[in-house]
Amino acid sequence: MTRRRDENNPYLLLTPGPLSTSSSVKQVMMKDWCTWDVDYNNLVQDIRSKLVQLATSTSNQYSAVLMQGSGTFTVESVIGSVIPKEGKLVVLVNGVYGARIAQIAQMLHIDVTVIDSGETSQPNLTELEKVLQEDLHITHVAVVHCETTTGMLNPIEAIGEIVNKYEKTYIVDAMSSFGGIPIDVEAIGIDYLISSANKCIQGVPGFGFVIAKIDELKQCKGYARSLSLDLYDQWETMEKHNGKWRFTSPTHTVRAFYQALLELEAEGGVLQRYERFSNSQRKLVEGMRELGYETLLEADLQSPIITSFHYLKEGNFSFRELYQSLKEKGYVIYPGKVTNFDTFRIGNIGEVNKEDIESLVKAIKECTQVVCEC
Q1: What DSSP designation does 172 have?
Q2: 179-191: b (≥16 Cβ within 10 Å) or e
Q3: Which of 153, 176, 208, 293 sits at 20 to 30 Å (Cα–Cα) from 41?
Q4: Closest Cα partner for 245 from 235, 255, 253?
Q5: How many CB atoms within 10 Å of residue 9?
Q6: What is the DSSP code (8-state) at residue 227?
Q7: If you average pLDDT over every residue of the chain, what do you get?
Q8: CB-CB neighbours of 283 under 10 Å
């Protein structure tokens, strides 16, 4: 099953991002913008407002800060800017991206405790509560919402109850979930939510963003361990100068993101997008199981964002050959990242619909027969 190709879209990206974008998102990047121009800065302000509205109905308590670079740059801007020198961070880890938060803290000489539950289990909330009871030096807790190492969806609501019970600052890396899974930062008690332009909102790479509780952010002046990644200074500049960035902003990416926000609204908002992603993920799993592929995670742990599949045990399975065969048909999937299992991953976020998933499964069936000689 070969996908109908477009010279501007030779492949359907079935990854956790960057992802396939609409032609209209691509088209708006054909215009150049001046970073000092009032029209551009008004656009930035509109984006900031829309992001807060997506995150909570209590919009007067939160503000959005945009930060140049990949999602990891934005994570580092938060970790390096909001924890005081005498502060201490707890990171709940069950995959590569939680571990990366801990690594960032260590590189910045921030005192950090890691609670590692393994790659196929959700965070140990009993252990978290015990650590918060016993270590009074802890000031902040961080967790990844959708851990795309496996596709795990972590229980940020239950974690938030514990974090807020002990009056700690709550940081959520919602890189691969915000805009695709309903989240209310105020209801959950999130102080800093981090995401990126090229994920569920379906923009292109170039910047990340933080939705921050204003009262928390105001306390962070002077905490930053980096000039370019100073979250407070970036926020203060945008507040005082009508959306102006401190340093050169990715103007084309920003304009594409604004278009992507409009398209999210046109689709019906986050809930409608969540339903599309969820329906696609269920369709994918059903089809893959019919072909003999089993999921790494049980259904109750699985996000609608990306799914890990075990290699086939029968035949002479080769992921590299499957990948290449699918690419020739117009589909790009992702290798696995877990430590103890042979897996690969298929994402269904981006400009992907049910028909795309059905066509993908047919293509995988064709490729599997060739690759496995079955």
Answers
A1: E
A2: bbbebebeebbbb
A3: 176
A4: 235
A5: 17
A6: S
A7: 94
A8: 19
CB of 15 closer than 8 Å to CB of 140: no
Residues 256, 264: Cα–Cα separation, whole Å: 12
Q: How far is CA 19 from CA 122, 131, 166, 174, in A?
A: 26, 38, 38, 16
Check residue 143 and give its pLDDT: 98
**Of the candidate ranges 5-14, 89-98, 288-297, the one whose mean pLDDT is the lowest:** 5-14
For residues 177 and 371, the answer to whether their CB atoms sit within 8 Å is no
Residue 362 pLDDT: 95
Structure token digits, residue 311: 């290699």
> Positive or negative, the Cα torsion across 259, 143, 101, 234?
positive
Measured distance CA(11)–CA(241) in Å, rounded: 41
Measuring CA to CA, how many Å separate 177 from each of 87, 161, 359?
Answer: 28, 20, 25
238-270 pLDDT per residue, tens: 999 999 999 999 999 999 999 999 999 999 999
**220 DSSP assignment:** G
DSSP letter assigned to residue 154: -
Residue type at position 306: I
* Contact assessment for residue 348 and residue 290, using Cβ atoms and an 8 Å cutoff: no
pLDDT at 208: 98
